[in-house]
Automatic annotation (TrEMBL):
UniProt similarity note: Belongs to the pterin-4-alpha-carbinolamine dehydratase family.
The enzyme's E.C. designation: 4.2.1.96
Species of the source: Chytriomyces confervae
Reaction catalyzed: (4aS,6R)-4a-hydroxy-L-erythro-5,6,7,8-tetrahydrobiopterin = (6R)-L-erythro-6,7-dihydrobiopterin + H2O
Top enzyme class: lyase
HAMAP family named in the record: Pterin_4_alpha
Gene Ontology biological process terms from the UniProt entry: tetrahydrobiopterin biosynthetic process
One Pfam family matching this protein: Pterin_4a
InterPro entries assigned to the protein according to its UniProt record, in alphabetical order: PCD_sf, Pterin_deHydtase
The name this protein goes by in its record: 4a-hydroxytetrahydrobiopterin dehydratase
Entry's Gene Ontology molecular function annotations: 4-alpha-hydroxytetrahydrobiopterin dehydratase activity
Lineage summary: Eukaryota, Fungi, Fungi incertae sedis, Chytridiomycota, Chytridiomycota incertae sedis
UniProt keywords, alphabetically: Lyase
Length: 124
């Protein structure tokens, strides 16, 4: 098993930041139109912006196949979703912790990939 190391300074050098207002309009709006929910939760000390979606599949096997595809993509991109699976559905939450718990281009790319992986698997 490979050892993983995480360095905030290395990630900062990669330019991980929250989306600008114009990027948000251009990139998040189509995701919302495709079934994603955009949420912002704030408290007196913290704020968390997320993209959330429930994917529903005909069977557990298809839900698991979807999760496997996402897991491989997540490892390759070093960007991992928060998710839960019960039988034929998968709830997903995307946020970028290194961007201050905001939506970044990494979340958009992961959401777009998930939409593609789900095509043909989702039940209606």
């Amino acid at each position: 098993m490979r050892k993983r190391t995480f360095s905030t300074s290395n990630r900062a050098m990669q330019g991980i930041s929250k989306l600008t207002a114009s990027e948000h309009t251009a990139l998040v709006t189509p995701l919302v139109q495709s079934g994603w929910k955009h949420t912002v939760k704030t408290s007196s000390t913290t704020s968390k912006e997320t993209l959330q979606r429930r994917f529903t599949f005909p069977t557990f096997s298809e839900a698991f196949a979807f999760m496997t595809r996402v897991a491989i993509a997540a490892e390759k991109s070093d960007h991992h979703p928060e998710w839960a699976n019960v039988y034929n559905w998968v709830d997903v939450t995307l946020t970028t912790h290194d961007a201050g718990n905001a939506v970044s281009i990494r979340d958009v790319r992961m959401a777009e990939a998930m939409n593609q992986f789900a095509k043909g698997l989702e039940g209606k």
